[in-house]
Amino acid sequence: xxxxxxxxxxxxxxxxxxxxxxxxxxxxxxxxxxxxxxxxxxxxxxxxxxxxxxxxxxxxxxxxxxxxxxxxxxxxxxxxxxxxxxxxxxxxxxxxxxxxxxxxxxxxxxxxxxxxxxxxxxxxxxxxxxxxxxxxxxxxxxxxxxxxxxxxxxxxxxxxxxxxxxxxxxxxxxxxxxxxxxxxxxxxxxxxxxxxxxxxxxxxxxxxxxxxxxxxxxxxxxxxxxxxxxxxxxxxxxxxxxxxxxxxxxxxxxxxxxxxxxxxxxxxxxxxxxxxxxxxxxxxxxxxxxxxxxxxxxxxxxxxxxxx
Length: 308
Hints:
Layout (H helix, E strand, L loop, with lengths): L5 H13 L2 H8 L3 H15 L4 E4 L2 E4 L4 H26 L4 E6 L1 H18 L4 E6 L5 H6 L5 E4 L8 E16 L9 E2 L1 H4 L4 E3 L5 H12 L6 E4 L3 H9 L5 E4 L11 E6 L4 E9 L6 H16 L12
Parallel strand pairs: 3-4, 3-5, 7-11, 8-9
Antiparallel strand pairs: 1-2, 5-12, 6-10, 6-11, 6-12
């Protein structure tokens, strides 16, 4: 006895649903003779009479009742599979966990997540904010799929992929004397109270490097742990700071003035993941959106104008 095929099951179900060869053909969008031939061939190859013909209608035969029960179960399983696939495509009952450096999280991550949400409206997203020293455990223990950082995560079990770059910019409180300049030098900034992050911190070291390369000693009047804290302190008139462009990548930032740095300097942004780990489609899509948002970030603040 030959095995029944999925096509034969599909045709049997169509005849069950519609009760006639013509109806089954219409249901499947094929010709009636083709349906008739396939039903006849199936009955002959299986050695089972599937239907009785009554007044032009096809009625399930009594002896084949168990076959039809299984056909219904097969299609129930197919429908469940389709529902599961549809749910997965929408992100239902699925979790995407990843982390970001504070400097990336405020604007870039929010915009990337907005696009991910529009693509997968029911996806649960767990965004964690980490310092670089916290990322190793996060990735190796698989608490999340990837981490976006402004420095490479140094560990043999972790791989880093550069996904973008951002310029360092000078940030000043509104009305500050340096706001009258179209560009600001670190030699200008060092004459005013300087706000920053501890230089022994990898992020703080990136912000301090232009001063050091210019032969200047970095003496902070105030330090904060996170970029957002530094931005807030500057906005309240407590000093000036060198900042990555991501942390101020918003069109309107009242109380704050942004200026390009004379000593132009870029820093790289990385997506770090556990080595050998296969990312989900959701994670890969999210990283793609981070790339896009990082590339677009410089366009978020072209409107700052010099003051006289």
